Structure formats: structure tokens, C-alpha cells
Inverse folding.
């Protein structure tokens, strides 16, 4: 699907790992939610209240991928998707949307631990990442690429190697993700031989699901003409 806007520079507000919290988000052209908007929620009324709260934000476009704690999108998928649609969210699951010529692709998958949804074995993950098309400008995933803003509180990298390989191959200008709460931050890869720089941003809003929200949404500007992220 394709949408048009008038801005040459896209201002993007990014959040993830809200775990049911409602946080203030500065205005922007696009809101991106990189998974775990809810926390193991199976109550449609509670989910609707949560999504309606974010749906009232003034952002013209609202994009979301699921995370492993968005259980309701696995168990009550049709009903949950209807709620997202009714609140003007564009839900991406191995799919892309084009806004003002900017190609944005989203996928929820992460490596397996426990019995959460949207987790896959290594081979299935590799197959999913292979579906990401060339030419994507902004990639939104719940999980991180291995070794990039993915070190958890125990010091282990929890990102996925094949996601990292795919990102390095397709070289999006921007890769937005969450999942690893301790990895909040930004790094840039302008490695030798790259056609363009990729900016990686972990936008996990919660430090820990037991703590209050203590990190602000990440606000970025993307210049589609130059590929610059600031």
C-alpha cells in the first residue's frame, strides 16, 4: 500500500516495549511502534483502550509491528487487527507500506525463548529475513540484529545473526527495533564498501517491565533525498 504526504523530510516518533503503558509521544509525521505495545494481554477491552489511547495521537501515519508479548495479536488476531485498523494503525507483518516514496517494511520475529508468540527457529527466521525486499528505506523489526544494541542485563547478545546479515546486504537507511530493553540507543554503520549508511536505533521505552517508563520516545528525521538520518 502507498500513501502520500507533502513533507520532503519525514519526522518519525519511535517507541517500543511499552508493555501496556501509555506514554506521551511528541508529534511527528509518522509514529512507529516496534513491538510489545501490550504485555501478555488477552483482554480485547483492555487492548482496545490501549490502542485507542495511541490512536488519538496527532501523527498522520501510525505503523506497528508485533512483539513477543503482544499475545493478543496471536490468539485473537482478527479482532485485534480490527481494533488497530479502526484506530488508523498500519500493521506490518512481513509487509511494507510506502509513505511519500519512503519504503517501510515491518516484521515481528525474534529467536525462540520460552513459549511466546512471534518467535521462530533459526531456519524459519532466516527464511523470514530473506523476504525483506531490496530497496527498503526503513526496516522495523521487534528484535535486534546480533551484536548491535542487543546486549541484555546478563551481558548476553540476544539479537539474530541472519537478521544482521540481511540488513547489511540490503542497507536500509534506518533500522528501528526494540526487544532488548538494555540496548536503548543508536549506532551508525558506514562500513567500507557500503552504498549508504545504516542507522540502527533500539527504541525500547521500558528499561525493565517491573519499572516505570524511564526513556523518552526517539525522534528522528529522515531525508529521503539524501538518505540522511538525524
Amino acid at each position: 500500500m502507498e500513501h502520500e504526504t507533502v513533507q520532503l523530510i519525514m519526522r518519525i516518533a519511535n517507541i517500543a516495549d511499552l508493555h501496556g503503558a501509555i506514554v506521551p509521544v511528541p508529534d511527528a509525521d509518522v509514529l512507529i511502534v516496534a513491538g510489545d505495545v501490550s504485555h501478555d494481554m488477552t483482554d480485547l477491552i483492555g487492548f482496545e483502550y490501549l490502542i485507542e489511547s495511541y490512536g488519538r495521537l496527532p501523527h498522520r501515519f501510525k505503523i506497528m509491528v508485533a512483539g513477543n508479548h503482544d499475545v493478543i495479536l496471536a490468539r485473537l488476531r482478527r479482532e485485534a487487527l480490527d481494533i488497530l485498523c479502526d484506530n488508523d494503525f498500519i500493521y506490518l507483518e512481513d509487509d511494507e507500506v510506502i509513505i511519500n516514496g519512503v519504503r517501510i517494511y515491518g516484521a515481528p520475529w525474534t529467536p525462540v525463548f520460552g513459549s511466546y508468540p512471534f518467535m521462530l527457529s533459526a531456519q524459519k527466521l532466516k527464511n523470514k529475513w530473506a523476504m525483506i525486499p531490496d530497496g527498503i528505506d526503513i526496516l522495523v523489526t521487534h528484535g535486534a540484529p546480533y551484536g548491535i544494541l542487543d546486549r541484555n542485563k546478563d551481558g548476553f547478545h540476544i539479537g539474530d545473526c541472519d537478521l544482521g546479515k540481511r540488513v547489511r546486504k540490503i542497507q536500509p537507511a534506518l533500522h528501528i527495533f526494540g526487544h532488548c530493553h538494555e540496548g536503548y540507543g543508536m549506532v551508525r554503520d558506514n562500513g567500507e564498501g557500503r552504498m549508504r549508511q545504516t542507522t540502527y536505533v533500539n527504541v525500547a521505552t521500558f528499561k525493565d517491565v517491573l519499572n516505570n517508563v524511564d526513556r523518552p520516545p526517539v525522534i528522528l528525521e529522515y531525508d529521503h533525498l539524501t538518505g540522511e538520518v538525524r
